[in-house]
Amino acid sequence: MPSLVLYVTLGVSDFERALAFYDAVMATVGQARTDETLPGWVGFGPDYDHGVSLWLCKPFDGDAPTPGNGQMTALRAASAEQVDTFHAAALAHGGTSEGAPGLRPSYGPGFYAAYVRDPDGNKLACVFHRHGLAG
User: Of 21, 111, 114, 118, which sits with the fewest C-beta atoms within 10 Å of its C-beta?
Assistant: First the structure.
């Protein structure tokens, strides 16, 4: 069965600043810009037929982008080291920390995550949820 989520869109105010941030942080989890092109949009990750992708655009209504309270996009990491690298890349490219890399036992055993906000305030998590667990 395909994933329930097809894509995630985040509104940005400054495309060049956003691309510098997202090129850096998405590379840490092995995701590059998608080959698909849409005017005024940039996507990361697989195409629509092969998984969930992340897209950046300016809001259609022309207003400033505003992050939602409680909204967060979580990126899958293949290791704790990817989570650490993601967090460092985010901070080096204009992001702010919302939670340093580490285990989050309240979310279950082996849940290793870091939380950041991009330069527009969108909240991202990077999660390796098998840290220290077999299989």
Answer: 111
Tokens of 117: 């906000």
Hey, is 87 helix, strand or coil? helix
Distances (CA, A) of 127 to 12, 116, 123: 23, 12, 13
Give the H or E element holding residue 82. helix 80-92
Nearest to 46 by CA among 90, 5, 1: 5
Mean pLDDT of 103-114: 91
Q: Exposed, middle or buried, 120 (CB in 10 Å: 0-12/13-18/19+)?
A: buried
- pLDDT range class, residue 131, cuts 50, 70, 90: confident
pLDDT of 43-79, one tens digit each? 999 877 788 899 999 998 999 999 888 899 999 999 9
Q: What is the pLDDT of residue 47?
A: 76
CATH architecture of 7-59+71-128: Roll (3.10)
Task: Name the residue ranges covered by the structural domains of the chain.
Answer: 7-59+71-128
Please give the Cα distance from 110 to 133 (Å, whole number): 6
